[in-house]
Amino acid sequence: MTTVDPILALQTLGYTEMEASFLYLVAMHSGYFLRRQFDYFINRHKGAIAQNFLEKARVAGHVRILDYGQKWNVYHLFAKPIYRLLGNAESQHRRAKGDAQIKTKLMTLDYVLENDTEHFFRTEEERRDYFHLVRGLSTDWLGIHAPGDVPFINAFPISLADRMNPQRSVVRFAFIDEGQLSTSKFLRFITRMKALFHVLDRVEVIYIADSEHNFAAIQHIFARNFHPLVPMAQRQLHQEWMASPHHAGVTTQRVQPKLTTLLFAYSYPRLHRYEPRGSKQGSYRGSNCMSGSGGE
C-alpha cells in the first residue's frame, strides 16, 4: 500500500513546500491560525510572502477570514478537500467554533510551533496505537469502540519529548487555559487523568495560559493529587489497565508526574494586544524558568 505524502498532496493544490507544511500543521492541530503564526513558521516578520500565501488560500476557497476588528483577522482552514487529502474529511478542526474555542485553537498552534522538536500525536488512531501498542494499555480501557468516552483521545495536545525513544520518553499532556476564571476545568482534567498518569512512569502536565491568575491554585491542586505519592501494586495496575499477563506480579513503584506552567505573552484577538512576544516557562517541583520566542 502506498502512503501519500501529505505535504506533496497539498502542493498539488498550488502551495509551496513551506506553505503546504504550515497548512498541514494547522489541519492536524488547530484549524485556525493567525498571520503572525505563519510568519513565525517561515521565520519572517511580515512581508509579501505571507500576504501572497493568505490571498492564495482565500481565493482557492480553503480559508475563511474572521474579522475581529482593529486589524485583527483569524484565518479558518475549513475546506473539506484539504482535510480529505489528509485522510480526515470530517475533522472537527474544519467546524466553526465560538470565540473561546478559537482562542484555544490558536494557543494550541502556538504551543506546537514553539515545540517543534517534539513528536505530537496528530490523530485519535495514532494516540490509541501509542498507548496500546507501545505502552501496553488495555484496548478496552482505550475505548476503541467508543473513543468519545476516553478523556485524552480528543483532549489537548499530547507529545513525546524524545521522539527517538517513544517507549521511555516523557509523555507531555498539555492543558490550555484560554482565560478561565476558575480552576474547575483543570480539576476535572486531573481527576479523569489521574489513574493514567500513575500508570505511565514519566508524565509531564503543561499548563498553558496567557495570565498567571490561576497558577498558584493549579499548583495546589496538582500537589494535592500527586504528593505525597503512594506506592502502587503492579498487579493492581495489570488488572485495571494492562493488556497482557506478563505485567502481573507485585512490585512497588513511585510515580512522579510533573507540572510545568507555561505563560504565553502572545497576542490574541479581543484580548491583550500589547504584550511582549514569546512565552516564559516555570515549573512545579524544581524546573528552571526559561524564555521562549514568538511573534506578534
What does this 3D model show about the protein?
The chain is of the alpha+beta class and 296 residues long. It folds into two domains: 6-96, Arc Repressor Mutant, subunit A; 119-291, no CATH class. It has eleven helices and twelve strands. The strands form three sheets. The chain has a seven-stranded mixed beta sheet with strand order 4-5-6-7-10-11-12, sandwiched between helices. It has a three-stranded antiparallel beta sheet with strand order 1-3-2. Strands 8-9 form a two-stranded antiparallel ribbon. The model is unreliable at 143-150, 229-252, 271-279 and 283-296 (pLDDT under 50).
TL;DR of this structure?
With 296 residues, the chain is of the alpha+beta class. The protein is built from eleven helices and twelve strands. The strands form three sheets. Strands 4-5-6-7-10-11-12 form a seven-stranded mixed beta sheet, with helices on both faces.
Low-confidence spans: 143-150, 229-252, 271-279, 283-296
Based on CA inertia axes, which overall geometry fits? globular
Strand order of the largest sheet: 4-5-6-7-10-11-12
Largest sheet: 7 strands, mixed
What's the SSE pattern? HHEHHEEHHEHHEEHEHEHEEEE
β-sheet strand percentage = 15-25%
List how many beta strands DSSP finds.
12
Structural class from helices and strands?
Answer: alpha+beta
Can you give the helix content as a percent range?
A: 25-40%
Integer average pLDDT: 80
CA radius of gyration: 20 Å
**Total domain count:** 2
Helix tally equals: 11
CA(first)-CA(last) distance: 43 Å
